[in-house]
Amino acid sequence: MFFGLLLVERPAALGTYCHQNGVKTPMTNQISLNLDINGKSRQVTVEARVTLLDALREHLELTGTKKGCDHGQCGACTVHVDGERVLSCLTLAAQVEGSTINTIEGLSAPGDALHPVQAAFLEHDAFQCGYCTPGQIMSAVACIREGHAGSDDEIREYMSGNLCRCGAYPHIVDAVREAAKELS
Amino acid sequence: MTIVETRAKRGDAADGALGGRLSRIDGPAKITGLADYALEHHPQGMVHAVLVESAIASGRVVSIDANAAERAPGVLLVMTPDNALPIKSATDWLNTPPSDAPYEPLARSITFAGQHIAAVIAETFEQATAAAALVKVYYEEAPAIAGLDDPKAGDGMPLDRMTIEWGDAHGALANAPIRIKHEYRTPREYNVPIEPHGLIAEWKGDRLTVWEPSQWIDGMARTYAEWFDIPFENVELRSPYIGGGFGSKALALEHGAIAINAARMLGRPVKLAVTRAQTFTAYGGRPATRQTIELGATRDGKLVSIVQTGANETSMKAVQVEPLGSVTSIMYATPNFSSRQNVVPVNTVKPGALRAPGENPSAFGIECAIDELAYEVGIDPVQIRLLNYAEEDPHARKPWSTRRLREAYAAGAEAFGWSARQPKPRSMREGNQLIGYGVAAGTYPVRRTPGEALVRILGDGSVEVASSGIDMGQGTYTILAQTAAEAIGVPVEKVRVKLGDSSLPRAPVAGGSQFANLITGAVHKAALAARDELIGLAINDPNSPFRDLQANTLIVENGVISSPRDTGAGVGIAEIMQRTGRERIEALRDTLPENLRNEKDHFRNFTTITTMLSPTDGDYSLHSWCVHFVEVRVDADFGTVRVARMVSALDSGRLYNPKLAESQWKGGIIMGIGQALLEEGIVDARNGRVMNNNLGDYLVPTNADIPDLKVISVGIPDTHASVLGGKAVGELGIVGVAPAIANAVYHATGVRVRDLPITMDKLT
């Protein structure tokens, strides 16, 4: 029965509509969310199926969080929810109402000094193209906070959820080691 | 337009000069999330396109039932070959004139699984994705050839232009006292940039703006202009940051045409993000290869003949060559040589360029084969390479410009501790770990295309550099700031670099490891011209304190103009500009030879590769070189292989920024470790689909797979190779890694694996 329901064709007329810029925009199951992102309260109205990643990138102009696979396999979309690293592509925006969300944009305010992890990434050239980098940095901050930066091997293990195709891994280890020292 | 502010490494002014270890100046934008990659723009009214792909590998689309999709919420258009506006064919990158037939990025006739057959455009990404699943496609399926190993694939077609021969290779082989013959194979491999392909296209009248990651702004802009029949100048392509390309983002692709066409049909900006699964079929990676290498040698290991026959898979519609003789024909001295190559059409997307196309699998063959010969005749693997050292290019019969390969063997062996190697396989062990040492060499040619750059000195004494060339992580922003700072004589913090926009001066492809050399050359030339004009201003302007001095008596250093004869403190550039009433000094320079300095050839130079010089054009043979030393540890029970440590010595000539060049080398080495141990596109023989089309199943190295890597630069400036002395960097590092690991695995286990990747099932 459940699968039968999914396969039922849904005529457009059953959707709800709003008018935006004079364009008739069909909407499906829109929900209004109040999200706590980088210490700010942000309102967003999205479909219930919108992931946290797409909410950030497409609806909240927070494009620092990257989409690499949309399947929880690359780590580029790593953000912090209540201080823990999560994959925002596998998290619905609706799931995190009431939680504290931190993204790369919130790590250091514009104009302020860089977070020690960011500074160490720059100093050790721990990236090339930069696309996996926000996810790497968010993972690294959590990795250190979790107490998983005790040795190079431990750093490697706990940073292995974030793929880097440019191959910055040895420099990422250098950066995390140095930042961990500075933050201890 | 992106302006990257310079940020120098803390407190070390020397790092800003060319050759200094300046941290990348685009770094702050990347580590704070502010770098704006292509798909992060939101033009007003933007809608989303999702591709529908062929489920069969061969046959034709009989019909498409789009009714359900068209009625789904938010859907604006289901684009099929039947309703798409026509697109013209375009000139290709080899300057081949277009055919009169239209270009059809949505296929009716299917030659591979995953081919684009329709696109759904909807108000939101979620709506387009959901509706795309409702598109029903009816096919007439034909038998498919799944890959190189499919019995139906056959031997393919010989490519005579790939044949390289000298001496009597077969005769000499037949008479050689030592003969070895083996087949080496590499699987289909994928580029896997972490930023998937995609674009945003927006039309305003007959002007097109495209935000898209691109390794070649001008080449892609030309294709778009021709496809949509608008002047080249009407295309603005923006690509200030590229989330990795590795060869895959240099050419306009079908999905680009689809998105731009959808934007034209709907009159709204369209964003099309290729999904990760689609990245395995929207463009091709390295084709699968096989090669048989026969070596003939004397009993003391001196080569007398090399005979190679190779083949790579290609698509049904196009010939893509992975040149398997490229390293085989230049690495070792041999009096007799033969290399021939076939291409084998199979039902795949057209293969593409993946880091060191040709050199990479070519080195896997010859560098494993020479290792096998070393064991056969009982000589150390480093020694046999030195014994057969090519003192000149054995194919072109020209001297090397520089070949610091002996120095690389020496430096690498010393740093690695090669002398501790026990010669016999399976003779080094620690507990349950079999230890193996392996070595292999690599090379990559120096390619040369003329460049162009604009350099401005502004009224405030700052400097701007502009080029449509790109930085995908190689460090273009940074080394251009260093080049201009040094040539003009200003601190590097005073230089802003603008890249990645087709409205800026032209640039050829950032590929073939040519870009850093050609663009630093152009910036250097433009910067010196701007400096000359600045000095001219200083000595000619009646308001200048230096009026009537000789040009060659003035120096510009640290942003200050001074005369060594004058003991005064000198005058800042900004003050000279102010006193002389100048707002800017601007120098646009190209490095085209005189015979190409006309509008037509200028355009051809930057939008095709027809003016690229081969490494042996001229009096010398120009190549970068490297040697990799590897220690592997293989679990004696399970056959799991770990790379425990690596030392690589590389000759890329002069390094413009060693910090960034080392990162590129290491990146190539890491990709090589993935190639050796992990990476393999697996095709379902039943239906021709890539089964592991995701990052959980197509395995690339993770942080835990990579040990500490030591890289040693043994290069010296090579001004035959480039104006400023650099040679190829980006593609060099990967070449030779896989054979070094295969050779180390043999040394550890006594098992010779000749088909990549080296997985545990092949060792137990």
From TrEMBL, chain B:
MF GO annotations: iron ion binding; oxidoreductase activity
SUPFAM superfamilies: CO dehydrogenase molybdoprotein N-domain-like, Molybdenum cofactor-binding domain
Domain Aldehyde oxidase/xanthine dehydrogenase a/b hammerhead positions: 32-143
Source organism superkingdom: Bacteria
Tagged with keyword Transmembrane: no
Stored Pfam families: Ald_Xan_dh_C, MoCoBD_1, MoCoBD_2
InterPro entries on file: Ald_Oxase/Xan_DH_a/b, Ald_Oxase/Xan_DH_a/b_sf, Ald_Oxase/xanthine_DH-like, AldOxase/xan_DH_MoCoBD1, AldOxase/xan_DH_MoCoBD2, AldOxase/xan_DH_Mopterin-bd_sf
UniProt keyword annotations, A-Z: Molybdenum, Oxidoreductase
Residue stretches spanning the membrane: none
Name assigned to this protein: Xanthine dehydrogenase family protein molybdopterin-binding subunit
Naturally occurring in which organism (per UniProt): Phyllobacterium pellucidum
